[in-house]
Amino acid sequence: MKEVVGRHNERLEATLDFAAFASRPMPLVSLLDEAPRRIAQILRAEVCSIYLLEGEGELVMRGNVGFQRQAIGQIRLAIGEGMVGEAVEYMRPIVAALAPTHAKYKHFDELDEGKFPVFLAVPLRGKAGPVGALVVQRAATTPENEKASFDVSDVEILVLLGALIAAVIRTAEVIDSQREKSHGPNSARRAGGGTRKVTLTGRVVVPGLTLGAVAALRRPASRPEVRTTGEGAQDVRMLRAAFDVAEKATRGLIEAAKKLELGTQAAFLGTYVEILGDARFKTRALELAEEGGGIGSALGRVAREVTRAAHQVTRDPFMEERARDIEDLCDALTMLAASDKRAELPQKAVLIGDALSVFDVLVSSRAHPVAVVLTERSGGPRTRALLELMAIPAVVDVQGLFRWASDGDVALVDADHGIFVINPSKNEIAAVRERTRSTT
């Protein structure tokens, strides 16, 4: 007698659906969004997380359902650290009825894991070793008051689901430091779309998903513009207007920071208002501009004078930081007064750089960028505050950014999971466009 199995078996039906889902070519973005939701349903778990193995053996949560979205890209473990790291270290499943009592349990305040102590982690196997881990968690009891512990069949099915996920992850070609080294420092690539697809990872600051062309952050050229005599009066008028625009914009940023409750993170903006209101600074800049040597030359000279004065005051961090702020502001005033074509950015670009400053919020944002991606040299509370004020998708701490990305490359910024894809596939581009259309 023949019988079709599973017509009324919800778990089997959901598993078959997942197998069909995972067998299709898909962007890593889609996998990290959809797979945790489906697996949580199959295992009747409140939480499901996907960790990817990155860098020098660091496990990073890149997909999740059940925890706050801010945890994605922020929760990180070394191999062997915590129960997730232990599962990857020994390449064996780890199961616990009460995870907090486990000797290897690692607590994260931001996860509020105490609500979901029933724990199961399985390693994700690649061709030559682990590529990550798959974790599911339950509350202590189910709504039906049944025993919540994961049994042997749960472990078996999660191992098999993990194998399907690992196959998709392998095709994503996430670049870690070891593979970057294997290409060597002189590995050839062409700008403007000439390189192969590359996936880099970082930390999320502002979530979102977008596409755009890469453009490196720029500053006004150091060489002063060539001027003719008799233009000093015009420069003074333009520079006065730039001061007014900069002061109004900076005060607007302070108000926006208050609404975002950035608090002390954005307190430095007050320094820029003070500088713009400093009569000596403004008078000196206008005086030099009136000489007719050009606005950029005048402001550059003011910045150099302030820097020299700061260096004369030894071991004074405040003076040195103020000098940097004035230099940053002078660059912004230069562009606000008379844009330097050499420093202008293309419209609606994905901006990449080592750091972000007030200059970029005042000036670079005029090009209406769609995202910002910064290297591992972008640390500091100022950067985070400025990125939040720009209010576009932002990913930081991206290693190897300038090795792989150049002006003109097409880029996908998945700032929901902390992923930056250079030269994404047609399927990835289509998936992003479909998703952005469905959310607008």
Describe the structure in your own words.
With 440 residues, the chain is of the alpha+beta class. It folds into three domains: 10-172, GAF domain (Beta-Lactamase, 2-Layer Sandwich); 179-218 and 345-438, Phosphohistidine domain (Glucose Oxidase, domain 1, 3-Layer(bba) Sandwich), CATH 3.50.30; 232-342, Enzyme I, Chain A, domain 2, CATH 1.10.274. The protein is built from 14 helices and 14 strands. It has helices at residues 10-23, 28-43, 82-90, 152-172, 177-183, 232-259, 269-276, 279-290, 295-312, 317-337, 358-362, 381-390, 401-404, 426-438, and strands spanning 47-54, 58-65, 76-78, 94-96, 118-125, 130-138, 198-201, 203-206, 209-216, 349-353, 371-374, 394-396, 410-414, 419-422. It has an eight-stranded mixed beta sheet with strand order 7-14-13-9-10-11-12-8. A six-stranded antiparallel beta sheet has the order 3-2-1-6-5-4, with helices on both faces. The model is unreliable at 176-193 (pLDDT under 50).
